[in-house]
TrEMBL record:
Protein's name in the database: Glutamate racemase
EC number: 5.1.1.3
Organism: Accumulibacter regalis
PROSITE patterns per the UniProt record, alphabetical: ASP_GLU_RACEMASE_1
Pathway in which the depicted protein is active: Cell wall biogenesis; peptidoglycan biosynthesis
Domain of life of the native organism: Bacteria
Residues annotated to bind substrate: 6-7, 38-39, 70-71, 181-182
Length: 261
């Protein structure tokens, strides 16, 4: 069984890629909705949440854990791996490397939560993989919360996104990295804004491939899915159609449950 978690709905974009790549794997998705968003919390708090949620998923029998959250990976994946040294753990980091490799203009941008944007881990990722390009790191406060509210294509957000992206596009940025798993669900708004000028870079499929490599026996099951949440579990199941993920319901084995973690 594979455990996947995020602060809320964002990690469902990663879960969907894993579900497509591993049709027989049993999957558990845990949304820490009692504490969403993580992006405006401090590192110590995020670490304590990641350790609690991870422990809960391990106790449920998960043999692989996917931290389907850039913010949690940046703040806590090292501590998590230290606490569970034998456990395969897959983190999610902004696709700086593929974006730098694909850029023709030599300018890329990373859209991320405030926490990821200021993280040492992102700075290191940029130093390692994007030495030859200029990288603009753009915090996007409120964007993850917008996804949680499912108001994805409101005119006020279209305008806000346009204003946020316009200076980047004007400066010649041609790769825009979605450095938060929630932002994948904003693509219908972001795509027409960037149009032919830039590509949006998402790593969900790459994360799923890494999961396939590490999963081993954890990928052999009945192809079932359980959804868990630390608050308002009914919102998770209800969000699937709005996020274009109705098909995941075919794998649901139980109603979405509340967990205390
Ligand atoms: N989806 C998460 C990420 O990838 C966290 C968003 C949030 O809770 O602020 O960063």
């Amino acid at each position: 069984m594979i455990g996947v978690f995020d602060s809320g709905l964002g990690g469902l974009s990663v879960l969907a890629a894993i579900a497509r790549a591993l049709p027989r794997a049993d999957l558990v998705y845990l949304a820490d909705t009692a504490h969403v968003p993580y992006g405006d919390k401090d590192d110590a708090f995020i670490r304590s949440r990641v350790l609690r949620i991870g422990r809960h998923l391990v106790d449920q029998g998960c043999g692989v854990i996917v931290v389907a959250c850039n913010t949690a990976t940046a703040a806590a994946v090292a501590a998590f791996r230290e606490s569970f040294p034998m456990l395969p753990v897959v983190g999610v980091e902004p696709g700086v490397k593929p974006a730098a490799a694909a850029s023709r203009s030599g300018r890329i941008a990373v859209l991320a939560t405030a926490s990821t944007a200021r993280s040492q881990r992102l700075a290191q990722l940029i130093r390692q993989h994007a030495g030859s390009v200029r990288v603009d790191v753009e915090p996007c406060p409120g964007w993850a919360t917008r996804v949680e509210s499912l108001r994805l294509e409101d005119p006020d957000f279209v305008e806000e996104a346009r204003q946020h992206l316009a200076p980047l596009l004007a400066a010649g940025v041609d790769q825009i990295v979605l450095g938060c798993t929630h932002y994948a669900f904003l693509c219908p708004t972001l795509e027409p804004i960037v149009a032919q000028r830039a590509s949006l870079v998402d790593v969900a499929d790459a994360v799923a491939r890494q999961c396939v490599r590490l999963a081993g026996a954890s990928a052999r099951g009945r192809g079932q899915l359980r959804l868990l949440a630390t608050a308002q579990p009914e919102r998770l199941d209800a969000a699937l159609p709005a996020l274009g993920l109705t098909w995941l319901r075919n794998r649901l084995s139980d109603p979405t449950r509340l967990v205390v973690a």
